[in-house]
UniProtKB/TrEMBL annotation, chain A:
Biological function: Protein transport. Probably involved in vesicular traffic.
GO cellular component terms given for this protein: plasma membrane
Native source organism of the sequence: Pycnococcus provasolii
Matches recorded under PROSITE patterns: RAB, RAS, RHO
GO biological process: protein transport
SUPFAM superfamilies assigned to the protein according to its UniProt record, in alphabetical order: P-loop containing nucleoside triphosphate hydrolases
Key words of the record: GTP-binding, Lipoprotein, Membrane, Nucleotide-binding, Prenylation, Protein transport, Transport
Protein name as it appears in the record: Rab-2A protein
Membrane topology classification: Lipid-anchor
Location(s) in or outside the cell: Cell membrane
Gene Ontology molecular functions: GTP binding; GTPase activity
Family of this protein: Belongs to the small GTPase superfamily. Rab family.
From TrEMBL, chain B:
Protein's name in the database: GTPase activating protein
Residue stretches of biased makeup (Low complexity): 169-190, 582-591
Region (Disordered): 25-48, 65-95, 169-193, 299-326, 582-607
GO molecular function, one term: GTPase activator activity
């Protein structure tokens, strides 16, 4: 499958907030009420189209438990985007966001796009964290914010695609050097449907494709 | 205390009605009798049905057990009496098709002679791995005087008539033919005499050099029946001479001829030389071996020359890669020519050769390695696997990945394809036929002590355990067998000292269950008020409650799959009790509710059928898992609970099917087998183990290790899950169970191996098997994706073989690399010792 870019994503957050379910909803468009707990890391991938370009999202779904932190940290390297997930029905998962952010700052590249996700928005009757609180936290730390439901698929598609759009914007504006893979971006062989006007992207493509 | 219900059941299973009765009086568990009783019938049902079929054919009643030995002179009955007992053992010795081992031949009333006046009757069998056309195995087991009881359990007390004390020449010659196949246990460490020690444990046909027949002349017993003596390659040792009291030598030889090539010796017509026909390569190698010993018959010599020819032609094809069938034609023809003598079997043989050749070419292993491997009779399974591999389009993708290649094509999970694959793979893991309950009983002396536990471990390591029910199509639906539970209990120290008597074992088990009940009370008695002031406990419980339903959630066991009538009866009984409200209060809290009152039992659950799924049973099993983990959190409070533990516990629970027993197995696995290290909060245990694998790899494949270093993947983080859960997540639960069985036995089976380290060799072995893929990796990310791509398709059999050779090759260096840190066994008071620790 040809694509213009490949973005590496990482999904982080406390255990049980629904990271694996978000991934499953996004890649398979289904919800599995009971999903075996993640040990180590799992992978998912999907092609999306941004501005007429085919972009492959390679998504790393990590384990949330504290005792796996040191290994989780090794996954940050080379991630272009991160979904930082908390559970709106469990306040403690919201409280732990700061420490997740700290980890991300230390171990990820500085330009990683982070999307804050308040998951389980369908469980309104059990909500412990208001939408406003989520928005405020995102604003304070310069994150994009969304509430999702892996169960109903509400906003799931948008969460992943908006993150991709953000990253793509950064490429377009020249923030990323796409030939440097530590940014979590690979230029695909096919180049997708690159329009003539997009000088930067098309200029980068042939440069990289030689060595792929 | 309803959670403790099955405790009594298993106990009863193990100990017979007497032991369970004691427990009932002990008051640890109060269980409805119907439940326990039906479980017992489950255990014995297989033997019952087997005896029915046996009595039809053997024309003798199964009720009278044979004396273990007989005084021969003047014993008129001696020639006819042993006809009956076999029937009660048939269930265990012949119903092994679920384990892929088919019985090619079985004959009762085959005796070995101890002294001039004493002999032991038993049953001789010839079995073969049906799935992979593996080598055939010859075994002989003496009858148990315990009669039907012998099939049920290792813990049963034995009341055996004592055999003649002096072990004579027969016993001496019965010493193991080689280290790879443990044969008769001649050492009687307890100093007690025991006919079981004469058992001939499965011996591969390829180990047999020749067969000496003796026709029956006159008079003395030794000469009054036709006999067969098997001479082994190894030092030309012999197995004990088998006297076919009821006849059947001709049939035996006929069966042997179907799996091996028998040729009459030129010098002595009563001697038949054996070559393994199932595997032309190893047969030829037998010839080579003969050449070395100077006893080479003309035909065999011929073979070996052909063999060399074949090898020299084969190398260009190897380089051709992929292994298209056409390239092999000339070689096959060459083979056909020399096989003129065996024209009748030619077609099959050509197929075999073809298969073997194609697969070997693809394997790309060097000839020397093959010679060694084939001589050990280990490669047939691979051959079959690789044959299948060649038919798949993606076979070449990863080069010489062996069985990995085919498995990769298998559907990911949950359907028939996976099951077929799994059965196939399970069959491949073991080199020897599985241990049956009957064989296991031969390791016990007359008092029921297990004199040589390490010999049992070695047999389990090589052969695994026979499954309880023939359910080839869906092994995940098979109930854990009584045999498996017994052996795991033994492996994991549940019975305490294996050399104890059954009564002592029963006492140990009883004490452990009582102790478990106490430990469990430590958390189950925490009420809401106390919990509010006990945040550490609350957090732990919350995490466990969250993780328990997320553990093996797709597995039938944890979905309340009803295995048999016994469980139906148990459910009905429990429902009746629950609806009467008598024990409602004592029922532990439900999984989801976290301390809430148990959900009311719904009517449709009242009588679920066998093969259906019961909500009640599901809740009960999840409740056991939860209880086990919470109790461990109290037992080892500092370690507490960590994700991954539920995976370890679920496997143990699915085998033991009993919360208390699984708990003590869990403790043993954590403390003795080193799992506790994996969960240290500083992650040092994992770091140390990954460093061990790195050191092993540096020794075994320096080039690969250098590459991993160059791409900054030498932390081996990509092997994290392999090591953390010892491949459990990479395999289906049944496969993982078999693998763990092997791992738990490994330190007794491989010289110089420390307990709890074999999985590190296995990890290193699997990495070297896939070195090509890893040499192509450009980053740690690539390695991680590679490791994840192997999920549920690890080449386990090949990996284990490679791991074993790594243990041998690396010797002390390897041992230093994996040197375990001293396990943190604080407060292990009730843990009990390992089998031999």
């Amino acid at each position: 499958m040809s694509y213009a870019y490949l973005f590496k994503y990482i999904i982080i957050g406390d255990t049980g907030v629904g990271k694996s379910c978000l991934l499953l909803q996004f890649t398979d468009k289904r919800f599995q009420p009971v999903h075996d707990l993640t040990i180590g890391v799992e992978f998912g991938a999907r092609l999306v189209t941004i501005d007429g370009k085919q972009i492959k999202l390679q998504i790393w779904d990590t384990a949330g438990q504290e005792s796996f932190r040191s290994i989780t940290r090794s996954y940050y390297r080379g991630a272009a985007g991160a979904l930082l997930v908390y559970d709106i029905t469990r306040r403690e998962t919201f409280h732990h966001l700061a420490s997740w952010l700290e980890d991300a700052k230390q171990h990820a590249n500085a330009n990683m796009t982070i999307m804050l996700i308040g998951n389980k928005s369908d469980l309104t009757h059990r909500r412990q964290v208001s939408t406003e609180e989520g928005e405020a936290f995102a604003k304070e730390h310069g994150l994009v914010f969304m509430e999702t439901s892996a169960k109903t698929a509400h906003n799931v598609e948008d969460a992943f695609i908006n993150t991709a759009r953000k990253i793509h914007e950064k490429i377009e504006s020249g923030i990323f050097d796409v030939s440097n893979e530590s940014y979590g971006i690979k230029v695909g062989l096919g180049g997708g449907t690159v329009r003539p006007g997009e000088a930067q992207a098309s200029a980068a493509t042939p440069a990289k494709s030689n060595c792929c | 205390m309803s959670v403790l219900l099955p405790v009594e059941d298993a106990f009863r299973l193990v100990l017979g009605a007497h032991g369970a009765h004691e427990l009932g009086n002990g008051g640890v568990a109060s269980s409805p009798h119907s439940h326990s009783h039906s479980r017992v019938s489950r255990a014995s049902s297989s033997s019952a049905s087997a005896s029915a079929s046996a009595s039809a054919s053997a024309s003798a009643s199964a009720s009278a057990p044979a004396p273990a030995s007989e005084a021969l002179p003047g014993a008129a009955s001696s020639s006819s009496s042993p006809a009956s007992p076999s029937s009660s053992f048939q269930s265990s010795s012949s119903s092994s098709k679920d384990n892929a081992f088919e019985t090619l031949f079985a004959r009762d009333n085959v005796c070995i002679q101890l002294t001039q006046n004493a002999r032991i009757a038993g049953r001789i069998t010839l079995t073969r791995n049906a799935h992979v056309h593996g080598p055939a195995f010859l075994a002989w087991l003496p009858y148990n005087s315990g009669g039907a009881a012998a099939t049920s359990s290792i813990a049963l007390p034995k009341t055996t008539t004592t055999t003649t004390k002096s072990a004579n020449a027969v016993a001496n010659t019965a010493a193991g033919p080689s280290t790879s196949t443990s044969t008769t246990t001649t050492s009687s460490s307890s100093g007690k005499n025991n006919k079981h020690m004469y058992a001939v444990h499965p011996t591969c046909i390829s180990e047999i050099h020749s067969i000496h027949q003796k026709a029956p002349p006159f008079r003395t017993f030794a000469r009054s029946f036709a006999s067969i003596t098997f001479v082994l390659h190894h030092n030309h040792e012999t197995l004990p001479t088998f006297f076919f009291v009821g006849g059947g030598t001709r049939e035996m030889l006929g069966a042997l001829a179907s799996v091996a090539r028998l040729t009459q010796s030129a010098e002595d017509p009563t001697i038949l030389l054996v070559n393994d026909l199932a595997d032309p390569l190893s047969r030829s190698l037998v010839g080579l071996d003969l050449a070395l010993t100077g006893a080479l018959p003309p035909m065999a010599h011929h073979h070996s020359q052909q063999q060399h020819q074949r090898r020299s032609v084969s190398s260009p094809v190897q380089r051709g890669g992929g292994g298209g069938g056409n390239d092999d034609l000339p070689i096959v023809q060459g083979f056909t020519a020399f096989l003129g003598a065996a024209a009748a079997a030619a077609t099959d043989i050509i197929n075999d050769i073809d298969n073997m050749f194609v697969s070997k070419a693809e394997a790309g292993a060097n000839a020397t390695e093959e010679v060694v491997a084939a001589a050990e009779g280990e490669r047939e399974e691979d051959a079959a696997a690789r044959l299948r591999a060649t038919s798949s389009a993606s076979a070449a993708e990863h080069g010489d990945l062996g069985s990995f290649v085919i498995l990769k094509d298998a559907p990911p999970s949950g359907d028939g394809g996976t099951r077929a694959r799994m059965v196939h793979q399970l069959a491949m893991v073991h080199e020897e036929p599985p241990v049956t309950a009957r064989e296991l009983s031969t390791f016990l002396d007359e008092e029921g002590r297990m004199c040589t536990p390490s010999a049992v471990l070695r047999r389990v390591f090589r052969g695994g355990l026979e499954s309880s029910t023939p359910s080839t199509s869906a092994p995940e639906l098979a109930p854990p067998s009584a045999l498996q539970r017994d052996v795991w209990a033994l492996l994991l120290g549940l019975y305490g000292d294996p050399q104890a008597t059954p009564a002592e074992r029963a006492e140990t088990l009883k004490a452990k269950r009582r102790r478990y009940a106490e430990l469990r009370m430590q958390w189950s008695s925490i009420d809401g008020t106390q919990a509010r002031r006990f945040s550490k406990f609350r957090e732990r419980r919350q995490q466990i409650d969250k993780d328990v339903p997320r553990t093996d959630s797709a597995h039938p066991y944890f979905n309340g799959y009803v295995v048999d009538e016994a469980e139906v009866a148990a459910l009905v009984a429990r429902n009746r009790r629950a609806s009467s409200g008598a024990s409602r209060a004592s029922r532990s809290s439900s999984i989801e509710g976290g301390g809430a009152e148990a959900e009311p039992i719904v009517d449709e659950d009242a009588a679920p059928g066998v093969g259906s799924y019961s909500h009640e049973l599901k809740a009960h099993r999840l409740d056991m898992l939860r209880g086990l983990l919470l109790t461990y959190g109290m037992y080892h409070f500092d370690l507490g609970y960590c994700q991954g533990m539920s995976d370890v516990a679920s496997l143990l629970l699915s085998v033991m099917d009993n919360e208390a027993d699984a708990f003590w197995c869990f403790v043993q696995v954590m403390d003795v087998h080193g799992f506790a290290d994996n969960f240290l909060s500083d992650e040092n245990g994992m770091a140390r183990q990954l460093a061990s694998v790195r050191d092993l790899l540096a020794l075994a494949d320096a080039e690969l290790m250098a590459h991993l270093e160059s791409i900054e993947a030498d932390n081996l983080f990509f092997l994290y899950r392999w090591v953390l859960l010892r491949f459990k997540r990479e395999l289906l639960l049944e496969e993982a169970t078999r693998l763990w069985e092997v791992l738990f036995c490994s330190h007794e089976s491989l010289e110089g191996l420390d307990v709890g380290t074999f999985h590190l060799y296995l990890a290193a072995a699997l990495v070297t098997i896939h070195r090509d893929a890893l040499l192509r990796a450009e980053s740690l990310d690539d390695c991680l994706r590679w490791a994840n791509s192997l999920k549920e398709c690890l080449p386990l059999a090949e990996g284990l073989r490679r791991a074993e050779s790594l243990v041998m090759e690396l010797g002390t260096k390897g041992r230093e690399a994996v040197a375990p840190c001293v396990a943190d066994v604080d407060g292990g008071g009730g843990g009990g010792g390992g089998v031999d620790h």
